């Protein structure tokens, strides 16, 4: 089975930092460990808000967050685990205006990496893009299909 290419919305940083509670923090760390174990990949683009948050995570002092940051950065630096998407695909006009400006780059990455699955916690974003992008899933549903939740 080919590796799964994932675009993790910015929720990953909130969860890794513990902002969504200790259970979500532990779950986010388990997700990264599972991505590593399965040889799946994280798609990302440098010079984006997502990349800046990833690098900012490295400056956190809390021990659990530092461990999580090292795990994430290890995945992103490994060419077998992190896939840098540099080509930009423009959003279809009927979708562009409906997507909040802060989220457009994530959807562009998803369209550029045609085989990627965008995982989001943003219900509104999901509802806007799901009719146009077939590979988008809400986090709770994804974690069930990925085997991290019953």
Supply database-style keywords:
single chain; 150 residues; alpha/beta; 5 strands
Number of domains: 1
Q: Strand count, sense and closure of the main sheet?
A: 5 strands, parallel
Summarize model confidence as the mean pLDDT: 93
- Give the CATH architecture: 3-Layer(aba) Sandwich
- What helical percentage do the residues reach? 40-55%
Which sequence of strands runs across the widest sheet?
3-2-1-4-5
Radius of gyration: 15 Å
Strand content: 5-15%
Shape: globular
Series of H and E elements: EHHEHHEHHEHEH
In terms of structural class, how would the helical and strand content be classed? alpha/beta
Annotated CATH topology = Rossmann fold
Q: Between the first and last Cα atoms, what is the distance in angstroms?
A: 23 Å
Helical segment tally?
A: 8
- Topology, number of strands: 5
The CATH class = Alpha Beta
**Uncertain residue ranges:** none
Secondary structure elements and their pairing?
Elements: E1 5-8, H1 11-16, H2 22-38, E2 41-44, H3 49-57, H4 63-77, E3 82-84, H5 93-96, H6 104-112, E4 116-120, H7 123-129, E5 136-138, H8 139-145
Parallel strand pairs: 1-2, 1-4, 2-3, 4-5
Helix pairs in contact: 2-4
What report would you give on this structure?
The protein is an alpha/beta fold. It has one domain: Rossmann fold (3-Layer(aba) Sandwich). Helix content is about 50%, strand content about 15%. The protein has helices at about 10-15, 20-40, 50-55, 65-75, 95, 105-110, 125-130, 140-145, and strands at about 5-10, 40-45, 80-85, 115-120, 135-140. Strands 3-2-1-4-5 form a five-stranded parallel beta sheet. Helix 2 packs parallel to helix 4. The longest helix has 17 residues, at about 20-40. It is globular and about 45 Å long. The relative contact order is 0.18. The model has no long low-confidence stretch (mean pLDDT about 95).
